[in-house]
Design brief:
- By secondary structure, the protein is an alpha/beta fold.
- The chain has two domains: 196 residues, 2-enoyl-CoA Hydratase, Chain A, domain 1; 45 residues, no CATH class.
- The chain has a six-stranded mixed sheet with strand order 1-2-3-4-6-9, sandwiched between helices.
- Helix 1 links the parallel strand 2 and strand 3.
- Helix 1 runs parallel beside helix 2 and helix 5 crosses helix 6.
- The termini are far apart.
């Protein structure tokens, strides 16, 4: 008799408690490369969260020693279709899987905390920076090997997120100098929010997620949209944008609850989504 085949392990582990969904990249034996199956499972999990109104915040982390080391170069096989190059195949996969994954993270109706538990390299950097709040273990680092070692551009939103967070000069240095950026320096540069002792990382991530879960349901969407609008507005245009958002938001229940809580010297309790 043939021995029973082991049950395949999921690429994404999903846990939910107290309104916080924790998604863990689960290919630790390969340091969590952003493999095709992992991307599919992660996007499916995010879409389930989008539809689950009991979830109020998300934590994204990695199993084992790494957060995500980017593409699995050993798995990049020649294209199966005649006339298609490896570049064609990669671009099609990115446009079908990777780009929508980052867009899904950036438009999720709840806050996302990335807990970078170890190395974030290549596309893993883009994944980490797609979160609303990114924290890292002190032993973690961020690394862009694309141009120095492969001759290709950083992807999964790296070229969009890094110059906006850390400035163009530092983005160019990260892209070209083949150096690992420590978690501590990433905080100094404004690339991430904070770093924590390795053994305290997940406790800190949960504490942040719990704080975010208590915000008004629309808070994260308003923050994202306001800061992204400021990227292409003049000061005059952004001032107008802010006043128009106040026009819409001050008449909502969350503002009334916030004022009442302030006057009554108690924490506000906002409606969930």
């Amino acid at each position: 008799m043939n021995a029973p085949q082991p049950t395949p392990q999921p690429c994404i582990l999903c846990e939910q408690a107290d309104g916080i969904a924790t998604l863990t990249l689960n290919l630790p034996h390969k340091l969590n490369p952003i493999a095709k199956d992992l991307q599919v499972e992660l996007r499916d999990a995010l879409e389930r969260i989008r539809d689950d109104r009991t979830v109020r915040a998300v934590i994204l982390t990695g199993a084992g020693k790494a957060f995500c080391v980017g593409a699995d170069l050993s798995a990049m096989a020649p294209p199966g279709e005649p006339g298609q190059t490896l570049g064609d195949q990669t671009a099609e996969w990115m446009q079908k899987l990777s780009n929508p994954l980052i867009e899904t993270l950036r438009t999720l109706p709840v806050p996302v905390v990335a807990a970078v538990n170890g190395p974030a390299a290549g596309a893993g950097v883009g994944l980490a920076l797609a979160a609303d709040v990114t924290i890292a273990a002190r032993s973690a680092y961020f690394y862009l090997p694309f141009l120095p070692n492969l001759g290709i551009v950083p992807d999964l939103g790296c070229t969009w997120a890094i110059p906006r967070r850390a400035g163009r000069a530092r983005a160019m240095g990260m892209a070209l100098l083949d150096e690992r950026l420590s978690a501590g320096r990433a905080v100094q540069w404004g690339l991430i929010w904070a770093c924590a002792d390795d053994e305290q990382l997940m406790d800190e991530a949960r504490a942040i997620a719990q704080r975010l879960a208590r915000l008004p349901a629309h808070a994260v969407l308003e923050a994202r949209e306001a800061f992204e609008a400021s990227e292409h507005h003049t000061l005059k245009e952004q001032l107008h944008y802010e006043s128009e958002r106040q026009r819409a938001l001050i008449d909502r229940p969350s503002f009334r609850e916030g004022v009442s809580a302030f006057l009554q010297k108690r924490p506000p309790v906002f409606e969930t989504r």
